[in-house]
User: What shape does this take?
Amino acid sequence: MKSSIANIVEQAISDLPEFAAAPEIASISTSVERTRDPRHGDFTTNIAMRLAKSMGKNPREIAQTIIDKLPESELIDAVDIAGPGFINFHVSGAAFHRELALILDENQCYGRQEMRNEPKILLEFVSANPTGPLHVGHGRHASYGATLGNLLEAAGYQVDREYYVNDAGRQMDILGVSVLLRILEAAGETIHFPDAGYKGEYIKTIGASIGKVSGVSATRLFEGLPDDAPAGDKEEFIGALIDRAEELMGIDEFHKLRRESLTSILDDIKDDLAEFGVTFDKWFSEQSLTDDKLIDSALAGLKERRMLYEKDGATWFRATDFGDEKDRVVVRDNGKKTYFASDIAYHFGKRERGYDFLIDILGSDHHGYIARVQAGLEAMGYAGDSLEVDLVQFVTLYRGGEKMQMSTRSGEFVTLRQLREEVGNDAARFFYVMRSNDQHLDFDLELAKSRSNDNPVYYIQYAHARVASVFRQLAEKSLDYDQSAGIENFDRLSETHEKALMSSLSRYPEIIELAANNRAPQHLVHYLRDLANELHSYYNAHMFIVDDVALRNARLALISATRTVIAGGLTIIGVSAPDTM
Assistant: This one.
């Protein structure tokens, strides 16, 4: 409906050649908004005030000139000028009736835009290190990323979803040696478990599944190593332990142990996410960047462009040439490539794979990551702003008003699977996106499990179920519902609750666009809560199964359209729409 009003304004201005050169006319669609007070109409535009600045004219005069050129439309009952030059549109009942009919006709497709040819978007999210099970923080990344992908597709964008598997580097070595120690421990040997190792029970489970290793004993493994924390340096100790394990087992056997450990954890992550309704088009291996020489190729490209230089035995990237706060090391003085070198190669590869726009969803501690990777893209010949990074803040769990403590390396954390088992997928998916991703999230476990109107996901699902119950009652009374007759009698919908519900339903396409473009699923959450409230208020105030057949069909058509929109919105969030509660 908003786009229809914008088109009417565009038609009027197109007949006014004196405004043709004004830059403001390129943004007419963004100037049209819903009014905050229905007494001032349904839509308003400030285009006259925008034009006044460049045209040097009185905005109210410009507004009247535009109104005089507005084409006749059954969508509009009246137009007036308010304040300094706002043009207010009072939408006709016929316009709302047409929108209702569109919902019933398009069903789950309502509100979704036609697929655009470009840009082609690659959305990367979760990408948790495969060194342990997913915890509740990863769950927020998963829910936010999956919902954002659904929103972007609903807004007409081509989206592929990718998980970057950090299966190379030091954390894999730490995982391998942690599993090795648990294998030796299970065989009866006395070990000192390193402070920097992965301590969760899942490490013991992986060790038990692998069984035995040959050529290694605890005595030989720990002999001559430096002190661990607190007396020594925990990072130095774990590094020496990894070197000794590679020496005793042989690099190939140690890497085999690493791979088996990785596979076990990654399979668990894939299962966990799939059960959570989160799937990916591609699982991209960090190790493949080395195996396929993509890092070498990217660095060679930077060198050819004179973007690299040598200093203190290391190779540096001229990141400051592209707005970063300092230059970045890509190859250390020991010859090892940095994580940043991998990041450049990975994101360059994304663009080379044909994606026009890249969205990374990362933890809030990655705020310093953005400028340097954008600099890398620019240096490789792509626009830096073709990469967007959306940061996700932390999650805090509360039970009965008491904050739950969580730790990661120690293994004392609440897993995503544990959360899902306690509150269910629907509540988890919904609660994770109730607040903006850049705000901390307090997750109330007791509220998420409650079957009350205070629980927003229950409140919305109950609205959907209430509509389904009405149609079950209709069948029990052996009465029929004629949708076509309902559409023909929409003019019978004259109650205040009915008008409010029709207005709310017509906002759905705008909410999808707003939530997608602002990367803000919470807009959809709040909209669905408001729509459910409109439905519950209508349900409590009026009977739907009335003797007047024309009115009955019209009301049933209205609540059927409401059920459709609620189900569509919940589907985007990844939440079910039950018919019974």
